Structure formats: C-alpha cells, structure tokens
Amino acid sequence: MSKSRGNVVNPDEVVEAYGADALRLYLMFMGPLEQSAPWNTEGVDGISRFLARIWRVALDQDQEGKWVAASKLDDSQPGGELLKIVHATIKKVGEDVEKLRFNTAISQMMECTNAFTSAGNVPHELFRTLLILLNPFSPHLSEELWERLGYEGSCLKSPWPSYDESLLVEERVEIVVQVNGKVRSKIILAADATREMVESAARADSKVQGHLEGLTVRKVIVVPGRLVNLVAG
Fold first, then answer.
1. Is residue 173 packed enough to be buried (19+ CB in 10 Å), middle (13-18) or exposed (0-12)?
2. 8 Å CB contact between 33 and 39
3. Which residue, 72, 73, 163, 217, is most buried by CB atoms nearer than 10 A?
4. What pTM does this model have?
5. Treating both helix axes as pointing N-terminal to C-terminal, what angle do 102-118 and 20-29 enclose, rounded to 10 degrees?
6. Can you tell me the distance from the alpha carbon of 46 to that of 30, in angstroms, rounded to the nearest whole number?
7. Are 149 and 55 in contact (CB under 8 A)?
8. 177-201 burial, b if ≥16 CB within 10 A, otherwise e?
9. How far apart are CA 88 and CA 108, in angstroms?
10. At what angle do helices 102-118 and 124-134 cross, to 10 degrees?
C-alpha cells in the first residue's frame, strides 16, 4: 500500500464501520503471518457476520427490542456432537496459537459456532468455553457476552480450558472405495473396523458391484480408516 497512490486502508474507518474486533480478527484470518495477503474489505464483512452469529447464539431480542439471554442456552449436561466439537476446538485453537496459525484457529471456531447455530440447545458450559477461546482474538465481544450472560468473573481471567482426548476419537469414518485405482464409492464404517469388514462392505456396495461385474478381484489393498482398493481383472 502507498499513500501516494491513494490505496491506503485507514484502520480507523474500518473500526468505525465494523468494530475493532472484526478488524483484529480479519488481520489474523488473512493467512499465515509470514505470508503477505491482499486486503479485501469483503473479508472484513465476512468476519463481521461470523461475530454476529456468535452474538445471536448468545442473545435474543425481546418484544421491547432489548437483548436478553437466548432461549437455546441452558444448563443441560454437555454431551453428544456438540461436546466433541468443542473439545476438538480447544485442541485446535490451543495448538494453532502456539504455532501462530491464527487463521486456522479462527476457522475452527467458525465451525464450532456453526454447530451451535444449528443445535436446538447449547449448554452454557460449552458456550463459556467458546468465549474463552475467542477472547484472545475478539476481546471486546467475548467480554461483553460474558457479562450479559451473567457468567462469574472475567472471560479474560478464566483458566484456559483443557480437552479430553477420548472425545476426539472418531467412532465412524468415511472410507473411499476404489476399483483399479479409480474412486467408485464411499462407505461409512466403524473406525475400528477390521480389514475383512472393510473388504466385505466394499464388495457389497451397489456402485462397486457394477464396476466389478464380469471381473475377478485379484488383490485388495486396505489403508485403515481411509480407503480400500479392489484390484480386479
């Protein structure tokens, strides 16, 4: 950017239009810190929408137009897919911050927010965790929501959450099925499925059967949890 060429982006104007948190997040989301990236105001707009989604998970407007705690937030016991994605987010954000990979950490928090948005209810415990993870990136919004929701203490001073490794183990995985090296189908199996189970499921797939018609399977190559290749002739 060059002031003489008139292509300078004034950060004060961006802050006035989108807020300091949106600018801060966008600068970290543009890509790895060691790489240059072109400025794109539409990108700031996208980050602003992401922050708005977090706000709408936390708060609803009542009949008087006042923001109140969202009805989807409750004190239910965390579990299921939401618990898994939150723990995956704790792990991902923690590791990425250590490596200064802020853009991928933000992407993971976006995925977590999308899961919250789609869920029927979100336990307060899980939403508090997301705010703690978000705080280094978006301090103003996270502290504001923390206070509005009546959470104890300060978001900034809350201990960094830890994750449960056992929750990150995938129970079911998608396995690519190839016939002579070409992808013909995909199957869903238990993550600990044996080689025999993978081969049997691949052979039983209707799409695969069509490509094996008139051929004899001479070799089966299985890459656990990833793919199975039926070599036929």
1. middle
2. no
3. 73
4. 0.71
5. 120
6. 12
7. no
8. bbbeeeebbebebeeebeeeebbeb
9. 8
10. 160
Cβ density class 128-137: b for 16+ within 10 Å, e for less: bbbbbbbbbb
> How many beta carbons lie within 10 A of that of residue 120, not counting itself?
6
HSE-CB for 44 with a 13 A CA cutoff: 19
Per-residue pLDDT of the chain (233 residues), as tens digits, is 455 555 666 676 777 767 788 888 988 888 766 766 666 667 788 899 999 999 999 999 888 889 999 999 999 988 888 999 999 999 999 999 999 889 999 999 999 999 999 998 999 999 999 999 999 999 999 999 999 999 999 999 999 999 998 888 776 788 999 999 999 999 988 877 888 999 999 999 999 999 999 899 999 999 988 899 999 98
Helix or strand run (H / E) with residue 128: helix 124-134
Least Cα distance to 80 among 129, 119, 109 occurs for 119
Task: Let me know the angle formed at the C-alpha of 90 by 52 and 45, rounded to the nearest 5 degrees.
Answer: 25
Contacts of residue 25, defined as CB under 8 A and 6 or more positions apart, other chains included, come to: 47, 50, 51, 106, 137, 138
